[in-house]
Amino acid sequence: MERLTPREEELMRWFWTRGPLFVRELVALYPEPRPHFNTLSTMVRTLEAKGYVAHKSYGNTYQYYAVVTEEEFRRCTLKGVIRKYFDNSYLGAVSTLIREEQISVDELRELIARIEGQQEERR
Asked: pLDDT digits over 66-89, tens only?
């Protein structure tokens, strides 16, 4: 999955929360000063080229919709961060969270319990 720019991620969040949208509807979602219609249209077509959205034709206009779920995006983004910054080590990522006190021992215990519960469900 190709990486997204921060502005592309912002657009995807609109699709994930609002569902299918026309570009004119996207423009209306932004506060003043709103981005220009052509700017958003170009960005949406880029998202389509990257495989994140598709469109349905209505005459001369298109309604765009997400084809990648937010969950799929999160999972791929997390994998990319762990690959890039933690040398593919999930243990290294969790260790950093613990060391930086971003996750408590109680939260870690809860995480272990969830993992053990998922493993038991699979059996």
From this structure: 999 999 999 988 888 899 899 989
Phi and psi for 101 in degrees, rounded to 5? 60, 35
Q: Binning pLDDT at 50, 70 and 90, where does residue 103 land?
A: confident
Q: Where are the domains of the chain?
A: 6-66, 86-122
Phi, psi (rounded to 5 degrees) for 88: 65, 20
Residue 100, both tokens: 């930086």
Is it true that domain 6-66 has CATH number 1.10.10.10? yes
Q: What is the rounded CA–CA span in Å between residue 18 and residue 2?
A: 23
**Amino acid sitting at position 47:** L
What single letter denotes the amino acid at residue 4?
Answer: L
